[in-house]
Write a structure and sequence with these properties.
about 50% helix, globular, about 100 residues, single chain, mainly alpha, 5 helices
Length: about 100
């Protein structure tokens, strides 16, 4: 399957976390939801990399293809795992109620 390479308002709305605009774009069905930008990233890649979870959930609700790799061969789930690890490690470092808080008990 050949995928279009384009940077669209779909990518811009996602990158800017403009959820109302994203919903309007998705509802219009004018743009292909699986369109990739010059980095091979879909709007889902961008939403996850930027940490825009609401946009990512919306794209999933509109059934974006989660198996499309970017130009480095990574699917969006790869970046999602990285994001979850970063958030998890920040919680451990910043939350003194955590048992492992900097190894101090």
């Amino acid at each position: 399957i050949a995928l279009a390479i384009c940077s669209t308002i779909l990518h811009y709305a996602t990158s800017s976390n403009k959820q109302k605009a994203l919903r309007a774009i998705l509802n219009s069905r004018v743009l292909p939801i699986n369109c990739r930008d010059q980095n091979g990233q879909t709007a889902l890649h961008i939403a996850i990399i930027k940490g825009h979870i609401g946009c990512a959930q919306m794209l999933r609700n509109y059934e974006i293809d989660e198996t499309i790799p970017d130009n480095t061969g990574q699917i969006a789930a790869f970046f999602e795992k990285q994001l979850l690890r970063r958030k998890s490690s920040k919680k451990i470092l910043l939350d003194p109620s955590e048992e492992n808080f900097l190894g101090i008990y």
